[in-house]
Design a protein that fits this description.
It is a single chain. About 30% of the residues lie in helices and about 25% in strands. By secondary structure, it is an alpha/beta fold. The chain has 2 domains: about 260 residues, Aminopeptidase, CATH 3.40.630; about 150 residues, Glucose Oxidase, domain 1 (3-Layer(bba) Sandwich), CATH 3.50.30.30.
């Protein structure tokens, strides 16, 4: 039997002269969009994860506590088929992190190890700095310039609304250490991939090719990078610039992570489900409010509002993915586990909690009217329609590739995202409730449309 959800509103007496013997109740239809404007679900999730769990790096005991918390929370929201789906993954954890300029100047630097960095050992490593202004100049460098030295890659990530500079400047972190290791560097330090001016270095994963021996790899804060550049310029024709590093991360081998999944069950089982995703894990430097407790709050709140309004025709599957930060392990595990179950469309929230300003689509021509209606309904929220096709997010990337799914991207304002990204500053106080609720309203509108659309959603 399908339940109808409704709100009960008490009609009280208008005056003491006409008061009825008892207050009456009448059924008022639940308006998902109006309720989303007053949403408390999203903030409650973000507050709970950051306050009760805190940092929750993939493969650690803290991430397991986060999964236990998530299951209890999703159950309390009256969602269905709430479950944990575990998988194994290689796990790297941080150790001591210190860095100093030792000659011809003497001063400490704020540094953090990059995920998969090698250890310097318990005795600090010393070496001469070789400077590269960009990732591309490191790639072009002759091995003789690099071998036996500590590479410093300098770059200044630019602030953009859509975060588009991340791909360009992020290469120094994503694969810069691999390039330096292949050229014989003993270690690498990079300017943090971020747009802030705080002495908070930004962590994040790096990757080494099979057969390449990892080297100690760290990111220094932007102010420290500015200072190091000035020191490099002062030592160009004089004594070499020398630094000392102490980074002692270690690999724990295969550890358990997992995805947490819940559903809003559709009334038509013949229609493939919609998958909406966030990631539950965070880096260990902060409580992960922007990255990505906010995404989990937003998508879950929207699905809950749609469920309360009416039972949608399509099932909405909610994926709180595990171990995204350290290798997108949860998204890959989900795609593997559900490779034989057709899906229709994928969406993801993983870019903070600031206002959505653009919507992008990747749908079939037959769904043009659906896209037009969604864009029209989002316009009053200040959301414009993009011209480029939607591409999805990291945690839904594998299932999109495997099944060729339709995609809708609700693009958030990333102007300040990379001030906080992967730093100790990613904390609850950065959440703006008004902007968070705008996200929930936009997601509620989109989910209500697509979950009740019976046409084809794959392009």
């Amino acid at each position: 039997m399908i339940k109808k959800h409704h709100a009960l509103v008490a009609i009280a007496a208008l005056s003491s002269f006409s008061a009825p013997a008892a207050a009456r109740t009448v059924e008022v239809p639940y308006n998902a969009v109006e309720e989303a404007k007053k949403d408390t679900y999203a903030y409650d999730i973000i507050e709970g994860l950051t306050t009760e769990i805190g940092p929750r790096q993939g493969g650690t005991e803290a991430e397991q506590r986060a999964r236990d918390w998530a299951i209890a929370k999703l159950d309390s929201l009256d969602l269905y088929k709430v479950r944990e789906e575990r998988f194994e993954m290689p796990t790297w954890v941080r150790g001591e992190e210190k860095a100093w300029v030792i000659s011809p100047f003497q001063m400490p630097m704020a540094i953090t190890a990059l995920g998969n960095s090698a250890s310097t050992g318990e005795i600090p490593m010393e070496g001469e700095v070789v400077y590269f202004p960009t990732y591309d100049t490191l790639v072009a460098a002759d091995t003789s310039q690099v071998a036996g030295k500590i590479v410093f890659v300098d770059h200044q990530m630019k602030r953009t609304q859509d975060g588009s500079s991340y791909g360009q400047f992020g290469r120094a972190r994503f694969i810069g250490p691999n390039v330096a290791a292949k050229k014989g560097a003993k270690a690498i330090i990079i300017r943090s991939i971020g747009t802030d001016n705080h002495r908070n270095p930004h962590t994040g994963n790096t990757n080494f090719e099979p057969g390449v021996t990892p080297i100690p790899s760290g990111a220094i804060s932007n102010p420290d990078a500015d200072n190091l550049v000035r020191q490099v310029k002062l030592t160009v024709t004089k004594k070499p610039l020398m630094v000392k590093l102490l980074l002692t991360p270690k690999n724990l081998g295969q550890q358990t992570s997992g995805n947490v999944i819940a559903e809003v069950t559709g009334t038509n089982p013949s229609l493939p489900p919609i998958i909406i995703a966030c990631h539950l894990d965070s880096w260990d430097l902060a409580t992960g409010a922007f990255d990505d407790a906010s995404g989990c709050g937003i998508i879950t709140a929207a699905a809950r509002h749609v469920k309360s309004q009416k039972w949608p025709k399509r099932t909405i599957r909610i994926l709180w993915a595990g171990a995204e930060e350290v290798g997108i392990w949860g998204g890959k595990a989900y795609a593997k586990a559900y490779k034989d179950q057709p899906h229709a469309l994928a969406m993801e929230s993983d870019f903070g909690a600031d206002r959505i300003w653009r919507v992008d689509f990747k749908l079939p021509d037959s769904a043009k009217a659906l896209a037009d209606k969604i864009a029209a309904d989002l316009a009053p929220l200040g959301i414009v329609r993009g011209k480029d096709p939607a591409s999805g997010g990291a945690d839904v990337g594998a299932i999109i590739e495997a099944q060729g799914l339709g995609i809708i991207d609700l693009q958030q304002d990333g102007t300040r995202y990379f001030d906080l990204h992967h730093t100790p500053d990613d904390t609850l106080d950065k959440i703006d409730l008004e902007q968070l609720r705008q996200n929930v309203v936009a997601w509620t509108i989109v989910l209500d449309h697509v979950a009740n659309y019976e046409g084809e959603l794959k392009p």
